[in-house]
Amino acid sequence: MVTSSVPLKKSVRLFHALSDETRLALLERLTEGEQCVCELTDAMKSAQSRLSFHLKVLKDAGLIRDRREGRWIYYSIVPDAIEELETVVDTLKQVAKSAVSADRCC
């Protein structure tokens, strides 16, 4: 049996955070570098309160971090979290390959 070094609950939080189109769009924007909420709000043409909710989900999953500077909050991607996600996906790929190649019944 193939197991991931990433705890199951962490994997669930990661995939939940990625299960929304707005959150995926936010992550895509943040690949361009650190951005403040006002920049994200303008770019995504969405209410600040709505984006704040999605940013919190991404932050709680450990995918992004925030940094305060005066009144502004800046968000950026956490590279280690992306590596964890890659580990989980690689594990799933190994499990899928094993399942396909397994010569067993039921």
Mean pLDDT: 88
Portion of residues within helices: 55-70%
CATH topology: Arc Repressor Mutant, subunit A
Give the low-confidence spans.
none
Class derived from helix and strand content? alpha+beta
Beta-strand content estimate: 5-15%
Overall CATH architecture:
Orthogonal Bundle
In total, the number of domains comes to 1
Sheet with the most strands: spatial strand order: 1-3-2
Q: What is the string of helix and strand elements?
A: HHEHHEEH
Largest sheet report = 3 strands, antiparallel
Overall 3D geometry?
elongated
Task: Let me know the number of strands.
Answer: 3
CATH superfamily: Winged helix-like DNA-binding domain superfamily/Winged helix DNA-binding domain
Continuous helix count: 5
CATH level 1 name: Mainly Alpha
Radius of gyration of CA atoms, rounded to a whole number: 17 Å
Amino- and carboxy-terminal Cα gap? 16 Å
Concise synopsis of the structure shown:
With about 110 residues, the chain is an alpha+beta fold. It contains five helices and three strands. The protein has a single domain (about 1-75), classed as Arc Repressor Mutant, subunit A.
